[in-house]
UniProtKB/TrEMBL annotation:
Top-rank taxon: Archaea
Coiled-coil regions, chain positions: none
Family label: Belongs to the DtxR/MntR family.
Keywords from the UniProt entry: DNA-binding, Transcription, Transcription regulation
Matches recorded under InterPro entries: AsnC-type_HTH_dom (IPR000485), DtxR_MntR_Metal-Reg (IPR050536), Fe_dep_repressor (IPR001367), Fe_dep_repressor_sf (IPR036421), HTH_DTXR (IPR022687), Iron_dep_repressor (IPR022689), WH-like_DNA-bd_sf (IPR036388), WH_DNA-bd_sf (IPR036390)
Protein species of origin: Staphylothermus marinus
PANTHER family: IRON (METAL) DEPENDENT REPRESSOR, DTXR FAMILY, IRON-DEPENDENT TRANSCRIPTIONAL REGULATOR
Occurrences of domain HTH dtxR-type (ranges): 1-63
Gene Ontology molecular function: DNA-binding transcription factor activity; protein dimerization activity; sequence-specific DNA binding; transition metal ion binding
Protein name as catalogued: Metal-dependent transcriptional regulator
Length: 126
């Protein structure tokens, strides 16, 4: 399975869960921009890999393994988005670009971006 695709699914499931939305096939398909049949096929793979719990017709839930990865991806997304906003990128564009960047950036780069964001927050409060 492609890492980026796994991350997209897990992050989307995570976001829907924390927004209090029902996590179903049609909702995931709409959010991911794919057909419901593609979602079903991919959910089976995620379930086999131990990222989610999914039974046909039932709700989709993250396992501990899936939750940890999704949370990490969401944190990466938020750090990158905040960094882009500090640079003067609009909220809308920062959101779009963070989605692209979050999957390909090395962990060391994320750590340095996080340090920069934290430092910038501290300086802007003084």
């Amino acid at each position: 399975m492609r890492k980026n695709r796994v991350e997209e699914y897990l992050e989307t499931i995570y976001e829907l869960y924390y927004c209090g939305e029902r996590i179903g096939i049609r909702r995931l398909a709409k959010k991911l921009g794919v057909k419901p049949s593609s979602v079903i096929e991919y959910l089976k793979k995620l379930c086999e890999e131990g990222y989610i719990v999914y039974e046909k017709g039932g709700l989709i839930m993250l396992t501990n393994k899936g939750f940890e990865i999704a949370r990490e991806i969401k944190n990466r997304h938020n750090v990158i988005k905040e960094f882009l906003k500090i640079l003067g990128v609009s909220e809308e564009i920062a959101e779009i670009d963070a989605c692209y960047i979050e999957h390909g950036v090395h962990e060391e780069t994320i750590e340095k971006i996080q340090e920069f964001v934290n430092k910038n927050r501290t300086q802007s409060r003084v």
